[in-house]
Design goal:
Elements (H helix, E strand, L loop, with lengths): L2 H26 L2 E6 L2 E6 L4 H30 L8 H34 L14 H33 L15
Length: about 180
């Protein structure tokens, strides 16, 4: 891994961790209590299962990126090549980065779809609108979803760097042939 690429990857991973933690906190700590038809009702992220899944997914993605941050920051600051010629580690990092991006994007999109149902309701299924009663809750969830998509974009850039670090080990002239050391 080149020195500049490692620093860029470390910076992007740090930003991704911060945005993922912000997303989890905005969703996980959000609640609002309202007086609705003679009863106090509390809206939390547990009311929409997609938001619960989102909290778990972004927490795991933040942990993964934090572990990778430790590995690539050591490589960036000490100018070491931790991967060396270990092709298996490069492939594993590339595949895990891809999985992190796709799973986070999928969880964020599912939470967005559930949130749209909370905003608009669905009269065919007799689901009522929730955001006309819990406006602050819905605005905070909307901010969390925006942060989640920013994190997906950051992780996609990280995945591009990971792909670059993997495929630069291969020869340009022959398909899937490793470069020689000479």
């Amino acid at each position: 891994m080149k020195h500049g690429t490692a620093k860029t990857e470390a910076f992007l991973r740090l930003c991704a961790v911060l945005v993922l933690v912000l997303t989890a906190c905005l969703v996980g700590f959000d609640s609002q209590t309202k007086y609705v038809i003679f009863v106090y009702r509390k809206a939390t992220f547990r009311d929409l299962k997609a938001l619960l899944v989102l909290v778990y997914v972004v927490s795991v993605a933040a942990g993964y990126n934090l572990l990778q941050l430790g590995k690539c920051s050591k490589s960036a600051w000490y100018k070491e090549n931790l991967k060396g010629s270990n092709l298996y580690v490069a492939w594993l990092c590339f595949l895990l980065d891809q999985v992190a991006v796709y799973v986070t994007f999928g969880a964020n999109s599912a939470a967005l779809e559930a949130s749209v149902l909370a905003i608009k309701g669905a009269q065919d299924f007799q689901w009522m609108k929730l955001c006309n009663k819990y406006t602050r809750f819905c605005f905070q969830i909307g901010g969390a979803l925006a942060c989640g998509y920013v994190a997906c974009i950051l992780m996609a850039w990280i995945s591009l760097i990971s792909a670059f670090n993997l495929f630069r080990l291969y020869s340009l002239k022959q398909f899937l042939l490793l470069k020689t050391r000479g």
